[in-house]
Every structure is written in structure tokens, then in C-alpha cells.
Amino acid sequence: MSLTPKDKATVKLFWGKMSGKSELIGADALSRMLAVYPQTKIYFSHWKSCSPGSPEVKKHGKTIMMGIGEAVTKMDDLERGLLTLSELHAFKLRVDPTNFKLLSLNILVVMAIMFPLDFTPMAHLAVDKFLCALALALSEKYR
Amino acid sequence: MVEWTDSERAIINSIFSTLDYEEIGRKSLCRCLIVYPWTQRYFGAFGNLYNAETIMANPLIAAHGTKILHGLDRALKNMDDIKNTYAELSLLHSDKLHVDPDNFRLLADCLTVVIAAKMGTGFTVETQVAWQKFLSVVVSALGRQYH
């Protein structure tokens, strides 16, 4: 399920459309994930609040989007490009990799809300492939 | 038994009351077949699924999308007993159609994306929580009779 040149171009195009709003998008996607899949809150038990609009959610949404932005620039070699992030998730955060899918779905939902006409099935396919590849690279160092 | 709050019932009913079953059914099924192409394995008798364009133009797929939405309607009308409402459908998907139950989740995710696009900012966090809870009960009921 590797990324074709067309997939990469589609991802870059949407990333371009999303820049400038990436903090809002990140916070929205994270809020939705925490609400729809409450088990994901276990990773944030040190936060005061996991509610939409909380400062921690906003800040972390931004962090996540910066990570994704980095992945967009390193799409040709995600495994190498995300090595440090993978080590962080593997050895320090130890986020169960199944959760990457849950956040990915919510990123797709936010994109569908923002781009109801442009987020066609073909665009959805490209972005989903990218997010899957990203998740794979992120879990590279797990074992 | 699944417990629904009044708010959740209201949200789910509200979503369905404004839904164009044909439009949302067709879009959701097409999206599933395009984004997760292995799901096409169940639609061998549905004619041309050669690429995204032919899938989206395929009338048999469109009709089946509508059928799926009407199936969801049954869950809506029997929200307090979706498990038993779907017992026969579950057996059908297991014994006759041989659908991998993981695919129900894939279709549910596509439905969520299509509804999100349709409702825009109206698809609030609260709405999404209720909607996905409804779909997860449906997905669970559909997989219940597999043996």
C-alpha cells in the first residue's frame, strides 16, 4: 500500500490548503478522538481536561499537526524521516499503535467537514494511505 | 443492553430525518469500495467496478447503497434492541454473503466521513459521539451471529 506519486501530490495539495488552520484542525481532530474513543484519554491522565477547547488539547493538537507536517515533507522516506518520533512513541510514550487509526479517522472527518466537495473518495484514499504509512513509520521502533 | 440518553436519541433521529438515503447510501458505499478496494470482493455480480469513476456511475452499487441505508433505518426504529433486530441480517452476512465483519467498521467509517461532509460544522463533537456510538452498536450486532 505504498504511496504513488499521485497520492503524494494529493496529500501535499491538501496540506497546503490546511496550513494556517493546522492548529485548529489538530485540536478539533484530537477533541473528537478523545470524545468518540474515551479509552484514548488514558494517555492524557496528567491533563486537567480532555474537553474540546481545553488549553492542553489545543497545544497537543498543534504538536501533532507539526509532526504530520514533518511527515509530509519526508514522504519519500517516512521510516527514516520519522525515526526520532518513532523512538519517542516506542520507548517513552508507548502509545498502543491501534490508536493511530483512531486519530487518523478523526483527521479525515475534520477534512471532510472543511472540504466537503474537494475531499472526494480519491482524495480520501490518498490521505488515508498517507496516514497509514505515517502510523507504520511511527511504530517502526516498537519492536 | 445499550443505554441511550434522550440527547443521543434526539441526535440520531435528527440526522436520519434530514438524510437523503439514496445520496448518502450511494456515496458511502462508493467511498468504501474506492478507499478500501478489497471490499469489492463482495460485489463481483455488480458489474463494472473498474475504477473510481465507473464505481460512482454504477447503478447497482447506487441501489445497494440505498438498501444499506434502509437497513440502518431498521436499527433507528429499534434502537433499544438492535441486537435482535439484526440477528437475521447478521446470519445472512455470515452464512450467505461471507463478509469479513471488519468490513462493517470500514463502511461505518465511510458513512461517518460522508455525513460529516454533508453536515459540515453541524457535525459537532457531540453529534459525532452519538453517531459513532449508534454505528458501533450496529456493527457489533451485525457481527454477533458469526460462528
In words, what does this structure look like?
Chain A has 143 residues and is mostly helical. Chain A has helices at residues 5-18, 22-36, 55-73, 78-81, 83-93, 98-114, 121-138. The two termini of chain A are 21 Å apart. With 147 residues, chain B is mainly alpha-helical. Chain B is 70% helix and 0% strand. Chain B is built from 8 helices and no strands. Chain B starts with 5 loop residues before the first helix and ends with a helix. Chain A binds chain B through residues 31-32, 35-36, 52, 105, 108-110, 112-113, 115-116, 119, 121-122, 124-125, 128, and chain B through 30-31, 34-35, 52, 56, 109, 112-114, 116-121, 123, 125-126, 128-129, 132.
Number of strands of chain A: 0
Rg from Cα of chain B: 15 Å
The end-to-end distance of chain A, rounded to whole angstroms, is 21 Å
Order of helices and strands of chain A: HHHHHHH
Number of strands of chain B: 0
Strand content of chain A: under 5%
For this structure, the quaternary state is: heterodimer
Task: Specify the overall morphology of chain B.
Answer: globular
Unreliable stretches of chain A (pLDDT < 50, length at least 5) are none
List keywords for this structure.
heterodimer; A: 143 residues; mainly alpha; B: 147 residues; 8 helices
